Amino acid sequence: MQSSKLNISEIAKLLGVSKSTVSKALNNSHEISEATKLRIQKFAVKNNYKPNKLAVNLKSGTTKTIGVIIPSIQNNFFAKVLKGIEFVATEADYNIITTISNESYKKEVKSIELLSSGVVDGFILAIAEETQINQNFNHFIETIQQKKPIVMFDRVTKDLICDQVIVDDFKAAYQATLHFVNLKCKTIALVSTIDYLSVGKLRKDGYKKALTEAFGKVDNDLIIVANANNIDVKIMHLLKH
Length: 241
Hints:
The protein has helices at 8-15, 19-26, 34-46, 53-60, 76-91, 105-116, 129-134, 138-145, 169-182, 198-215, 231-240; strands at residues 65-70, 95-100, 122-125, 150-153, 163-165, 190-192, 223-225. By secondary structure, it is α/β, with parallel strands linked by helices. The mean pLDDT is 90.
């Protein structure tokens, strides 16, 4: 017999018992005799029986799998987060399926729709750049309404009721700016490549609050919004002027 094709029905037929009895034996149930249980279990081991995970998941209503959606794999921060998620999930006997939105709203929606159809039990994700700019969170709302839990990290929104893992970006920027103030610095600049994201906005607000408290005003010319292509040029321009 091809052991890879062995299923509960075939075991039951070969041993002359019911499928229910085989299922109980393989689940170590106390509802059948020890002799019958051992006979079936030994047969299953000898023939390299492997349970159909899909069938088991359908019966239990869980997949033991978490969907992870990150905006970019090139960002070292997200790579480290993914490594941590995978480690903890493995320790808890869970699997993860990872997709990368590449900062695209459409790709993020597609990933949510694909994985929501019985593939995963829930999601861990950071919102894509386009999604935060457009402020369109309908795909998340629908997922939560379908009883699929979402845990957001780093890039989050107050428009959704879900678990969120965040750093206090406002406080961090506020304290960092105050540190320079306490060092008697008078010209303190903020350079940001993520000004349009939630974390970038919070950092700018913290920076502004610290300067307002210290000097009574904020010089907006010292707030530099850049991207990966022009950040060096903008910093050099700032230093020269």
